[in-house]
Specification:
Number of helices: 15
Keywords: Glycoprotein, Glycosyltransferase, Membrane, Transferase, Transmembrane, Transmembrane helix
GO molecular function: pentosyltransferase activity
Number of strands: 22
Subcellular location: Golgi apparatus membrane
Shape: globular
Pfam family, one: Glyco_transf_61
Protein name: Glycosyltransferase 61 catalytic domain-containing protein
Distance between the termini: 65 Å
């Protein structure tokens, strides 16, 4: 027995070491799923705030079931792959200003061959609000009724943004200081040739992010004076159709992707480089990120220790897919982790979880009423059917408060559905239906997301409100009623890219037959096991 003891001891020690190794691997992966890997060239910790430096709390990234690592980007990623469209296809790095020393200034862009756009970032970036021509922004809608759209979009004068550079590297091109006050040594940071290659206009009439980059000047460190420093990473965002949910979702997604691609350790702050008034959608901006502010709300020049320039929403796959063929299909992150496929993605599911988590909703919870009861059970499960309605509301200063009807007998259809459910004549034996009247325009954004999360089936006429399906849970069914005037693929594509079951009813005009809608919904419910 004494001879066997050393052998037993060795076995026990080996098992303990092996168990420790597995634990280390588990926690390492679990950590990577809750926050992105550190970016290899940007220090993630900045100097502690001192006088004239702003310090604000940053929200951590939540743990998301569909999260897959963003950095480093996949090697040899094919152009046109789903990861190229929806994930980190920004694989080509271009350095316009390389750092000199660990805390030196830099400016660079990450270019996507698939999207033909760039995410840019800079360290030690100075914004001069007086050199940006636009309205103040952030006002209440009632205060600015009638204001023109062109007044809200930024026009950048030369030097609206600056980065510090060693004088020896600038050469001797001496330019008059913008706004008077003598002269400074400076140079234009990104020339037209480089703009055309890495920040293409791409059919966008007024590419404000391109114009922002074109305005950047590299100035000597002696002229780089800052009265206020923002130490936390900050996204610079320009919006166009800021009051429309669909287009705002493209802005949210672009901002989210930019944050992940640049490896930000926490959720960044956002500065709107536009002069739009406030909208209800800012509730979600505040939930997703660590805070928002308008550029013109800074009364003096402000310096950002780390600024990230988010591409326009028009440059995302969500928008480009409306006119181009993006052959991608939703798949679970678990399956893609084990077996990556270039024509499948979990990125939109990850983003939807990000929205739900931002409002404090659990992303791992499954609806208890999704499956019908077993044959031995006498109870009947209940499934929420959310009917997304189109309502009149005042959207922006140029809006009259009336929305265009996409289904002229929407009220009749809803009333018929309500009677069908209330009368108990659904013909469904295994499930009950709770019909939810989705008057989303008069609900808070949080309540809207809650209604989407709790829905088993989402039904509605084509309209921006259906964009909320980006936050739907994986087993949600989408039923879209499409009038002849609005044969557009927006929501069919989102459903496909998320892997959701999708049904469409195409109308010969703008009126739906309530009986046909009921029959289709009954068919859908039965296919769900009811």
């Amino acid at each position: 027995m004494s001879k066997r003891n050393p052998r037993v001891l060795k076995i026990v020690v080996c098992m303990l070491l092996l168990n420790s190794l597995f634990l280390c691997i588990y926690f390492a992966f679990h950590s990577s799923s809750s926050s992105p890997e550190p970016h290899p060239h940007i220090p993630l910790r900045f100097h502690a705030s001192v006088n004239n430096q702003s310090a604000a709390i940053q929200k951590p990234w939540p743990i998301l079931p569909s999260y897959l690592p963003w950095t480093p980007p996949q090697k040899n990623l094919p152009t046109g792959s789903c990861e190229g469209y929806f994930g980190n296809g920004f694989t080509r790095r271009v350095d316009f200003l390389k750092p000199k020393g660990g805390e030196g200034s830099l400016f660079r862009c990450f270019y996507s061959e698939t999207l033909k756009s760039s995410i840019c970032e800079g360290r030690n970036v100075r914004m001069v609000p007086d050199r940006i021509v636009m309205s103040r922004g952030g006002e209440k809608l009632e205060e600015v009724m009638g204001r023109k759209e062109e007044d809200e979009l930024p026009e950048f004068r030369e030097g609206a943004f600056e980065v510090a550079e060693e004088i020896s590297r600038l050469g001797f091109n001496r330019n008059r200081r913008i706004g008077g006050g003598g002269s400074v040594i400076s140079r234009r940071l990104v020339n037209d040739e480089m703009l055309n290659e890495y920040i293409e206009e791409g059919g966008i009439d007024r590419h404000t992010m391109r114009d922002l980059v074109a305005s950047i000047r590299a100035v000597g460190t002696e002229d780089f004076v800052c009265e206020e420093w923002v130490e936390e990473p900050t996204l610079l965002v320009t919006r166009f159709e800021y009051a429309n949910l669909y287009h705002t979702v493209t802005d949210w997604y672009s901002a989210y992707v930019s944050s992940r691609v640049t490896g930000l350790p926490n959720r960044p702050h956002v500065v709107f480089i536009d002069g739009h008034c406030t909208t209800q959608l800012e509730e979600t901006w505040n939930a997703l990120f660590s805070g928002i502010r308008y550029a013109k709300n800074f009364t003096k020049p402000v310096c950002f220790r780390h600024a990230v320039l988010s591409p326009l929403g028009y440059e995302t796959a969500l928008f480009k897919g409306l006119t181009g063929d993006i052959d991608c299909y939703g798949e679970s992150a678990h399956n893609l982790w084990q077996n990556p496929e270039n024509n499948k993605t979990a990125r939109l599911s990850e983003f939807g979880e990000m929205i739900r988590s931002a409002f404090g909703f659990p992303v791992n919870r499954h609806r208890t009423s999704e499956k019908p009861p077993s044959s031995s059970s006498s109870a009947t499960s209940v499934q929420n059917v959310l009917f997304v309605r189109r309502e009149d509301y005042l959207a922006h200063p140029r809006h009259g408060g009336k929305v265009q009807s996409r289904l002229i007998n929407e009220e009749e259809v809803f009333d018929s559905l309500h009677h069908w459910v209330a009368s108990g004549s659904t013909g469904l034996t295994k499930c009950g239906i709770n019909l939810v009247n989705g008057l989303l325009a008069h609900m808070s954004m949080k309540d809207q997301v809650r209604a989407i999360q709790d829905a088993s089936v989402i039904i509605g006429a084509h309209g921006a409100g259906l964009t909320h399906i980006v936050s739907a849970t994986p087993n949600t069914t989408i039923f879209e009623i499409i009038s002849v005037e609005f044969q557009r693929p927006h929501f069919e594509l989102i459903a496909k890219w998320k892997g959701l079951e999708y049904h469409a009813m195409h109308l010969a005009n703008s009126r739906a037959d309530p009986t046909a809608v009921i029959e289709k919904l009954e068919e859908i419910m039965k296919s769900r096991g009811c």
